[in-house]
Amino acid sequence: MRGEFSFIERFLSAFPRARVPLGPGDDCAVLPPSRGQTCVTTDAVVEDVHFTRAHFSPEDIGHKALAVNLSDLAAMGATPRWFVCAVALPRDFPGRELSRLARGMAALAREHRVALVGGNFTSARELSLTITAAGELKRPALTRGGGRPGHLLYVSGTLGEARLGLNLLREGRRRGAAIQRQRRPQPRVALGLLASRFASAGMDLSDGLAQDLGHLCEASGVGAEVELSHLPMSSAVRQALGWEGALEGGEDYELLLAVPPEQVAAFERACARAGERVTAVGLLTRARRRVLRDPQGRLIPPPPGFDHFRVRPPVD
Amino acid sequence: MRGEFSFIERFLSAFPRARVPLGPGDDCAVLPPSRGQTCVTTDAVVEDVHFTRAHFSPEDIGHKALAVNLSDLAAMGATPRWFVCAVALPRDFPGRELSRLARGMAALAREHRVALVGGNFTSARELSLTITAAGELKRPALTRGGGRPGHLLYVSGTLGEARLGLNLLREGRRRGAAIQRQRRPQPRVALGLLASRFASAGMDLSDGLAQDLGHLCEASGVGAEVELSHLPMSSAVRQALGWEGALEGGEDYELLLAVPPEQVAAFERACARAGERVTAVGLLTRARRRVLRDPQGRLIPPPPGFDHFRVRPPVD
């Protein structure tokens, strides 16, 4: 009775029927023609790399798998439209946990009105979820490569929370704002859409500001100066991790944006009206190096960022 | 030096640059508006479930990961356009094997003129590749649900080869036509496109004819009669596995098609002209049960199909 098809039905039952020409159940989904350009991204969460079953509820895992993909769409200024989900399940994975996982994913999908149109189940030694998500562009995509010298750098929300949450989980803590940020990242979809009216470049902060800013600078052919004293951090992060936490902590899923000076006033007004918190943390420079300035005005080199293959130990 | 980014570069270098507004390297790919409907599918191949590194070369693995997805597009009559590839790699996976894997995938992509537009790398305990592929429809999609009583059932190519290949690999054999079919399934893209002009229903044979025919019948609300003596098999399969091999052997990635009687002559002519081998193996019936008829005219019940969670042991 533990067949592939009962898993599929169990999973699908958490989601509303997709309003597309053909949803899950056939060899492919069929989607309507798209008037505008489409953004597509694929991202996976893997057991013991991006989550552990000891520290994440099934709902958390389902949420996070979709959130990291919606964050990529947000970063381009796209409106999420559909996604497919490939699930790899250990043979002993309990069916009721799969239902909870689907419900966590479905709640976030509902919030962003994005439709599950297809998927795949396979067995595997470890649980993983690989999602491909697509969004519609109404304006030109916000890429990493549009930044120019003199453009201001903004980040949304606060930084370092997800890393602090990870540390607290490892210490045995189970509740609190930082842990919630680690378990349930919130993709900045509305901000991405807003930013696409003003910003010259953008990306999401999945690997930590230090590393992600490097990607933006490289793609834009510029350098950057970041004022450490401007980095938005909660007092808990400031106390526990200091600047390094904000710079190196991955998985915040906030947005990093470059805004031309002539757009800054309108961008900040629009953010304030929309209730979106953004903070100017520096600017792009012609000199192609990244400079961090501490509150005493001293230059410090950018620390290495987050890289699954290099520096990140699994949660354990 | 074994960072995520060197893996990405190594992988991408096997593929030509995608002719889309924005290819790999940003948060999302950007695709042009689509005039027609789009088919989307996602499918994964997992180490020790769909392949073993002992029996599959890296090129085989890359080929198979893409082939199983293109086969789903073929089944709907779609022309492959783009795909994204999420790679989960054990930490000790050699970089040169990743290059070979990418080359195997790229060769098949080139053959079908389908563009790699994005991807993701993560570490994991076992190697897996999860691809999402999209194709363009020029006619209405060939679904599983369009079959009607009286429509003829066709299968392409020969059946049971991939299962025979799997058995031979387990016995220690390394070469031969059946092993090649297991390692390098050929998605029937041209046939799917052709069939969409004539057929009422279609799907690909990934789980074995017995099980897949059940899905087509269920979706179409019909039953079926299959003549075992008509099943196309090589003499090697006939000898080694008998009818059961053709019925139960998964992973052939041939097409199963239902064709209305008034289209049969034109369909067969078009297949002959195109050099596509198809064989009429039975017909759909009003009575909603599946009947197999052996060469002596005796009825036999359909055997259980291939199900990762139920019957399929890993290759070992």
TrEMBL record, chains A, B:
The keyword Transferase belongs to this UniProt entry's keyword annotation: yes
Binding site for ATP: G119, N120, R144, S206
Keywords in alphabetical order: ATP-binding, Kinase, Magnesium, Metal-binding, Nucleotide-binding, Thiamine biosynthesis, Transferase
Pfam families registered for this protein in UniProt: AIRS (PF00586), AIRS_C (PF02769)
Binding site residues for Mg(2+) 3: D27, D72, D204
Domain PurM-like N-terminal: start-end pairs: 25-136
Ligand binding (Mg(2+) 5): D207
Catalytic EC class: transferase
Keyword check for Ribonucleoprotein: no
Domain PurM-like C-terminal span(s) in chain numbering: 148-289
Pathways involved: Cofactor biosynthesis; thiamine diphosphate biosynthesis; thiamine diphosphate from thiamine phosphate: step 1/1
EC identifiers of the protein: 2.7.4.16
Swiss-Prot/TrEMBL catalytic activity: thiamine phosphate + ATP = thiamine diphosphate + ADP
Protein residues bound to Mg(2+) 4: D27, T41, D72
SUPFAM superfamilies in alphabetical order: PurM C-terminal domain-like, PurM N-terminal domain-like
Domain of life: Bacteria
Biological process according to GO: thiamine biosynthetic process; thiamine diphosphate biosynthetic process
Positions that bind substrate: H50, E251, F306
Chain positions recorded as Mg(2+) 2 binding sites: D43, D72
Annotated positions binding Mg(2+) 1: T42, D43, N120
Recorded family membership: Belongs to the thiamine-monophosphate kinase family.
Comment field (misc): Reaction mechanism of ThiL seems to utilize a direct, inline transfer of the gamma-phosphate of ATP to TMP rather than a phosphorylated enzyme intermediate.
Protein name: Thiamine-monophosphate kinase
Organism annotation: Stigmatella aurantiaca
Top-level taxonomy: Bacteria, Pseudomonadati, Myxococcota, Myxococcia, Myxococcales
